[in-house]
Amino acid sequence: MLNSNLANILRTTKKHLSLLDSLGVKTVKDILLYFPRDYNDASQFTKIIDIRTDQINVIRGQLTNLFNIHTKYGKKITRGLFTDDTGSIEVIWFNQPHLVRMLPRKKDIILSGKVKFALGKISLSNPSYEVVKDYEEQIHTGRIVPVYHETEGLSSKWLREKLKPLVDEWISLFEEYLPEEVIKEHGLIDYQTAIKNVHFPENDALLLKARDRLAFDELFLLQLKVLQKKWHWRSEAEPFSKKIEMKNDVLKDCLKSLEFELTNAQKRVLKEIFEDLQQPFPMSRLLQGDVGSGKTIVAALAALNVIKNSYQVTVMAPTEILAKQHYQTFIKVLSKYSLNIQFIAGSTTKKQKEEIIRQMKTGTVDMVIGTHALIQEGIGFKNLGLAIIDEQHRFGVKQREILKSYGSPHLLSMTATPIPRTLAITIYGDQDLSIIDEMPKGRQEILTRVVPESKRMEAYHWVEDQVKKGRQTFIICPLIDESDILEVKSVMKEYTFLSEHIFPDLKLGLLHGRLKQEEKDKIMADFKDNKINILVSTSVIEVGIDVPNATIMIIEGSERFGLAQLHQFRGRVGRGEHKSYCFLFTGALSEEGTTRMKSMEKYSSGFKLAEIDLELRGPGEIYGIRQSGIPDLKMASLTDFKTIEKARQSAQKIIDKDPLLKNNSKLAEKIAELTEIYIQD
Ligand code: ADP
Ligand code: MG
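Above: inputs. Below: predicted complex with magnesium ion.
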């Protein structure tokens, strides 16, 4: 059985088993689906003269002079010299003294590892090793050799040796699960051949076909899952009676009262939303638009139309301050319609809350705007027609489910995080997409510059100057991956340093993730009221916060952030009448880092930047390092638009015919194995 525990199948040590376990590899099936991350062409060894510090080097050469040293702290170090026809490099292993006996001298060995600076020298540190034997089978030294993700103590070589017999023995148990028409339509190879060839390719062509097939599978299953979700969203609302009629007169009247005309993009997405609202099933639409592109007015017009159909509307935002901002905007835009609009959040008193909830349940309130308080116990609506979620990626799937439980309202999610289309239809594929890709006229561009360290003081003087003219500044501290305690420490240090040594006469504020929400709100409110000149913050700085008087955004350690996130930070300024600036400080930059920083100077479109980052660094980086939940694709690429489209079309056809996959039970099993995907904080 493919589900057999590896412990019963593999002849190996407990240690190896637990290492596999830590990679999520527990069964025969798991290990056979543990795909190589790369392949080595035997002709592609790195020559010692070409060794690089930023990559794994795979070198073929010979060992001379291998010996053990015992340090006074009881560590055992094995040192030696490794030589190929271009030069020599020192090799160091820690705590593996047996290598001195095990590894042959003057015989070809393949070492693979990173170069480190240690003991004052450059050396190949803890490389994995593989002795080349003349008679050895293809698995190690054949032309295309699989390379697996390695962890300490679990080498590619080990995996190759274990996998070879397992593949031969167990492959026949893998059942084809793709419907035949899908295989035919896209000219895919069968599942068994794909798995076999992805580990031990017979030739280049088959390797490509194997990877194509497995990449398609991943994207196809994801699409099945999101499209099935979409189907559920609609069908579970049946019988559905919340068809919203167009109230064109009211809308026209409201548009006239605005100080501006809608952009073409705003008009287009409004049309998309209104078409949805007239359907016999609830809308589930994601509205994307850069900061300042005018999503709120679009939401307000949709809300007005729904209220004029005698339904209630709710707007949920991730923080109190954002919710408050929306509350004020909606009140202003809709002031002449004498609507009952209420606000509900953590700060609302119990008594007020009870009263508002009573009104929500009796239907006397038209619109409620608030935070998570809207999805707590005891909340209910008489007749909720539309739920709007702002910054939807800050909420999970559960929160949406709760909104759905309020009588399946139409749902409009909004986000200012630009997500390239390929990624959006993969992770948010259960929603329809609307994109505002045009800024209102007359928006100023924010001057963005990468500032060299030598000009740091100049930048600080500039800040001081601007503050004296009444403006305000944000300073964002670098992202620290290891822990947020370290991050908080570092931001506090920076804050103290800046307060004492750089801006002793100015009022500085400090914001970080360890503060309570009320404390954060208080600081943001003080900043908004210009009681704070310079706000020093970690990346927790709220999305969407509107401080028109802030004109300078300084970002430290910029290269550590995703471009979309840098762009978000930048969007905090340039929201008022004053010329605004974004200064990027960086650590040492790789070539890629330089390209990324240059893109910030060059492009003002968040979508463009997100696409660049998706290409350069992959999806995880678009949302910053901490936000995970993006599907962990092994074979497919989220930039592979063609395959994604193919997968979506095929999946759609199947869901149309068989939404519950009753006649496709193997597919149903497969998607049940996928974990829930969504982006979370
Ligand atoms: P976001 O998409 O970031 O939520 P907002 O809806 O808050 O953007 O809009 C930002 C600002 O732009 C608001 O002050 C809003 O009144 C204004 N605005 C919206 N649409 C237009 C437009 N078509 N022309 C001019 N200003 C607009
Ligand atoms: Mg907004």
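The first strand starts at residue 38 and ends at 41.
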